[in-house]
Write a structure and sequence with these properties.
about 375 residues, alpha+beta, 2,3-Dihydroxybiphenyl 1,2-Dioxygenase, domain 1, 2 domains, 9-stranded mixed β-sheet, 8-stranded mixed β-sheet, 17 strands, binds fe (ii) ion
């Protein structure tokens, strides 16, 4: 196998630009069981932005809002609503990663910087990807503070109950008509990713709507980015609806892994998170399609969890509804029991479910 030219250790953090980070932080603590670990704002000398860092398992969310009117974070929220700005990648050498990506044709988002405080130093550098989304390379081997210089440790004010969320499994981008291959090539040529899977509009269509998707992965498989684009159907593709409301390309969903989806989704539902609905008849013949599973089918049906199988095993998955008012970003909760794929067998049932939501929103 070829040497990995741009080794990535994993996802470092996912940053959302939001209208009100204080309230978003409470949502992730109460609904998703994330622990507050760090903060920056006026009290730490940050005069123009305020951020909360939330953690569960290996997942770190950074929620950032603007404190002043004329600021790129405020402009981003005005245009896109709450959404993902940064998919940060954990690396051993941020300057090397940045220089390698730039030399292969990446556009710079910001040049390498070294941030330091009494806990050591963090090096960061950013490149642009689809829409206004950025990949920040984060080198933190010489740092042992709660997040990064500029942030102070801050704990949740309430008792947080973690719900078993482990790590980011994959992050999906939606891009405009005809742009999927361009971005797949970007990940292949600039980032040295491999093309894992291709889904054409025949794989991903219902009677009414369609999309196309390709999945790229880095060398060690820790970072996987499916890229979707809309396809022609009788009605409006969910990808087009996203692009209309997000005002461009952006992150569509973040898939988070759990070892016990029944427990995790049970907690999420108790905490008020709403999920896409798949009709009961999905469960009538699902075992004919996927074969034996360890879980009690009735439990899965009660929670509306979906099942799919590939040659390596099976997986259990479920999708939340969008987590802000615009029908844009949502989450997937996934438990892999061997399967390395993305739930192709559930696409039809899922997209029919999304169509029902689009119908209610008047955007189908
Ligand atoms: Fe997914």
């Amino acid at each position: 196998m070829e040497k990995d030219q741009l080794p990535l250790l994993g996802t470092d953090y996912v940053e959302f630009y939001v209208g009100n980070a204080k309230q978003s932080a409470l949502y992730y603590q109460t609904a998703f069981g994330f622990e507050l670990v760090a903060y920056r704002g006026l009290e730490t000398g940050s005069k123009d932005v305020c951020s909360y860092v939330l953690q569960q398992g290996k997942i770190r969310l950074l929620l950032t809002t603007a404190l002043i009117e004329n600021h790129p974070v405020a402009d981003h929220v005005k245009k896109h609503g709450d959404g993902v700005k940064t998919l940060a990648l954990w690396v051993d050498d941020a300057v090397y990663s940045y220089n390698t990506a730039i030399a292969r044709g990446a556009k710079s988002a910001f040049e390498p910087q070294t941030l330091s405080d009494e806990n050591g130093e963090v090096k960061i550098a950013g490149i642009c990807t689809y829409g206004e989304t950025v990949h920040t390379f984060v080198e933190r081997k010489n740092y042992n503070g709660p997040f990064m210089p500029g942030f102070m440790a801050k704990k949740s004010l309430m008792e947080v109950k973690p719900i078993g969320l482990l790590y980011v499994d994959h992050c999906v981008g939606n891009v405009g008509w005809g742009q999927m291959n361009e971005w797949v090539e970007f990940y292949q040529k600039v980032m040295g990713f491999n093309l894992l899977i291709t889904f054409d509009d025949k794989d991903i269509s219902t009677e009414y709507t369609a999309l196309m998707s390709k999945v790229v992965s880095n060398g060690n498989g820790y970072v996987k980015f499916p890229i979707n684009e809309p396809a022609e159907g009788k009605k409006k593709s969910q990808i087009e609806e996203y692009i209309d409301f997000y005002a461009g390309a952006g992150v569509q969903h973040i898939a988070i892994a759990t070892h016990d989806i029944i427990s995790t989704v049970g907690q999420l539902r108790k905490n008020g998170v709403d999920f896409l609905y798949v009709p009961d008849n999905y469960y009538e013949d699902v075992l004919d399609r996927v074969g034996h599973i360890d879980e009690d089918l009735n439990e899965l049906k009660k929670l509306n969890i979906l099942i799919d199988r590939d040659e390596d095993g099976y997986l259990l998955q479920i999708f939340t509804k969008p987590v802000q008012d615009r029908p844009t970003v949502f989450y997937e909760i996934i438990q892999r029991k061997g399967a390395k794929s993305f739930g192709k067998g559930n696409f039809k049932a899922l997209f029919e479910s999304i169509e029902r939501e689009q119908e209610l929103r008047g955007t189908l």
